[in-house]
Amino acid sequence: DYISSKSTLIWEEIGEVDENYAPIHTYQVCRVMEQNQNNWLHTNWILTEGAQRVFIELKFTLRDCNSLPGGVGTCKETFNMYYYETNDRALKESRYIKIDTIAADESFTELDLGDRVMKLNTEVRDLGPLTRKGFYLAFQDLGACIALVSVRVFYKRCPFLVKSLAEFPGTIPGSEASQLVEVVGRCVNNSLPLYEPPRMHCSTEGEWLVPIGKCVCQPGFEEINGSCQVCKVGFYRSLLESLACSKCPPHSVARQTGATACSCEDGFYKIESDPPNMACTRPPSGPRNAISNVNETSVFLEWSIPMETGGRKDVRYNILCRRVLPDGRGLEECGPNVRFLPRRVGLSNTSVMVADLQSHTNYSFLLEAVNGVSELAKDHTKQYVTLNVTTNQAGTSHPDLLQSAAGLPTPTAITVNHYTHFVTTPFHFPDVRARTSAGYGAFSRRFEFQTSPYCEYIGGTQIGGATHDPLGGIASVSSIDARVCFFSAVKFPGVRTYIDPLTYEDPNQAVHEFAQEIDVSFISIERIIGAGEFGEVCSGPLRLPGKREIQVAIKTLKAGYTEQQRRDFLWEASIMGQFNHPNIIRLEGVVTKSKPVMIITEYMENGSLDTFLKKNDGQFTVIQLVGMLRGIASGMRYLSDMGYVHRDLAARNILVNSNLVCKVSDFGLSRVLEDDPEAAYTTRGGKIPIRWTAPEAIAYRKFTSASDVWSYGIVMWEVMSYGERPYWEMSNQDVIKAVEESYRLPGPMDCPEALYHLMMDCWQRERSNRPKFDEIVCLLDKLIRNPSSLKKLRSPFVTLHLCSSCGVENIVSYQTVGEWLDSIKMGRYTELFMEGGYSSLETVAQMTSEDLRRVGVNLAGHQKKIITSIQEMRVHMNNTNSAVNI
Ligand code: ACK
């Protein structure tokens, strides 16, 4: 309906039938015999409805020029599509902007027409960012034979969605290809956001991604089938964290629906700190079996717990001491001179020592039991037991419990629970004894603990196991504590050791040991930058309170993961968090308390090294490339010093920032290799990235820093050849065989001799002969300081390479013109060379610039590249004398 035929007289509106004889409506033009055609067909004004990116699907047929008698000279097989954006209908044809030239995948001939085969072409183009209310499309014919069958204009949108009790409106995506539009959801009726408003991200493909946060039913309601239903009578729901309405606990009731708490039955009570699911309780009955032991002017009182605790665990005892006045004059409170040990009220033990009473005097003690709700139960009659005693009237044979209570404690062992994981250097702690008000205790057994350079721990809670008494306190233990930290802060030489997260029974503990938990509200997800093994990789700013905003990469864990997947995902953070080096990707923290689970790392603007090099083929100086290699070697030196073996070192696992700094990334265990698309199964069942892996690691899984050095050599080769695939299209099996037979990758084009030498050293069969990473860093530093050492280039025409360690001659040569052209990235000319009669390297070696032009190499840059290589080839042929395959 949008096509306007009025604008043109040349394009004709024609009713036709398709191959199924169904009527179709087309616009056709076919001025193939006439010169200078410029025929326009434009649409009516199309409203964007707010879409910033629209898609245009064209269906058309196009006549094959060869099938037109005599028309070949002027006939075209393409047409152009244009657009023009405007806020109103006013059409200015001169303002059209070209979208693309459209060619047919299938054109048809007269013969096809006879057969009624339509050969309908479908082409889709996208258009954006659009900023105005609407636009026109136009089709320009320059002399083709076209029938435009349909033009479908559409945009994609994320549909209305209800997820986790939050509604997300239908949303139009952003205009840029990888952009994400963040949408805050609205909680459905009777629900509230849990911690933060729920958010989702609308992708350009019209898909909802990366859900964050959620809504939960408000108290008094529970979630049933995606909506919030009120709690029934007798049920309640108080906390957002609990899911369903619960039955009221004992001695409580909910008389109406929608209860957020239950109220206590008469005679039962609750205090504020009682959890909502706790039963209502009442005051206790009185203490039982009270006895007294008099010793001079002291009396020791002891009793048993009450029969009825009222349903609570917080029973305490209060003592009321009264002196019996002589001559029946009644009772008098004991006054401040009488001492109670440990105290008079709020006793948690069932005994008390009362001292400094008057001699030869009658006393009456009231023992009262109370609990947390006694204060509330004013009408509850208090239950006492009374004990009457007379001082100086008892024997001395009862146990002296006071002395016992103040006895000397002996710490028998101290365990530094948490920190025993930091297995580094054993450390002898001096002998320890504890001190109470009563004096010093005995020395402890000698003990030993091991500590870590990562100690950040201060405070007493980590230390347990010191015996202590109820009266004496454990004041001295905190001083032990301080010493533990003091010693932990001392640096031990050579203790930077990587800790395998497997040493932790609970992987979550390992994550939080090494990674900071980040609140998701500090992160904004702005765009998707790639697909990781576990979910999207996104980027956006991280704003930690009190810190400057930084750009971060956000790896997410897809919804619906298993516990094992979550563990594997966070594994990487447990490893990365232990490293701190400028050439190792830095972990900012993890998000595990909300969903999705995320790993936050520094953002590397240029993405992974292999893609980056391919994109910038030939753009860097040798010094820049060596600088990148130096960085990678330095990161690897750090990892090997830490005792960490990477196992998957490859350019795809190196990230590059805007300053061309390369950082090693992708830390996981061997099982993480399962997810590397380069990893292939070996005969022994493990998955290994064959092309990057040392022979001993492939053959018998001997992964060491020396096998990482082999991989480093391959990375050097990838870097110097700007992201070429190692061993090109050879199969994995062929690679294993070739390496076994001492074949090594040839030096990349324009690679300095010194660097190729280093690569070959990394690929020594005997792993102890390979250089160590510190030697590699050292050598690269030397080369950088002395750039003339990088001048001597390695020719790709070296036919013999003596592999020093294996003693076998390693033959590297070009067999065919095709291989040679491929090696200098001019493979596209192979066919032209063949057609021009240059099918052997001998004939190629004779070629001049003129010959090159004649075969069809027209670009000056390509001519130069090929001629330079031919000149080298000639030098080499003269040098070797034996024309090995050349
Ligand atoms: O080659 P790339 O752009 O770089 O595509 C992959 C993708 O995410 C999947 O891993 C990119 N990527 C991963 N981590 C980061 C990071 N820290 N900074 C920038 N890009 C990253 C990687």
TrEMBL record:
Enzyme active site: 648 (proton acceptor)
Domain Protein kinase: start-end pairs: 523-784
Alphabetical list of Gene3D superfamilies matching this protein: ephrin a2 ectodomain, Galactose-binding domain-like, Immunoglobulins, Phosphorylase Kinase, domain 1, Transcription Factor, Ets-1, Transferase(Phosphotransferase) domain 1, Tumor Necrosis Factor Receptor, subunit A, domain 2
Gene Ontology CC entries for this record: dendrite; plasma membrane
Disulfide pattern: 30-145, 65-75
Pfam families in UniProt: EphA2_TM, Ephrin_CRD, Ephrin_lbd, Ephrin_rec_like, fn3, PK_Tyr_Ser-Thr, SAM_1
Domain Eph LBD span(s) in chain numbering: 1-163
Membrane topology: Single-pass type I membrane protein
Protein name as catalogued: receptor protein-tyrosine kinase
GO annotation, biological process: axon guidance
Alphabetic keyword roster: ATP-binding, Cell membrane, Disulfide bond, Glycoprotein, Kinase, Membrane, Nucleotide-binding, Phosphoprotein, Receptor, Repeat, Signal, Transferase, Transmembrane, Transmembrane helix, Tyrosine-protein kinase
All copies of domain Fibronectin type-III, residue ranges: 283-394
Residues that hold ATP according to the record: 529-537, 555
One example GO MF annotation: ATP binding
Reactions listed under catalytic activity: L-tyrosyl-[protein] + ATP = O-phospho-L-tyrosyl-[protein] + ADP + H(+)
Cellular localization per UniProt: Cell membrane
Catalytic EC class: transferase
Source organism of this protein record: Salarias fasciatus (Jewelled blenny)
SAM domain span: 812-876
EC identifiers of the protein: 2.7.10.1
Coiled coil regions in record: none
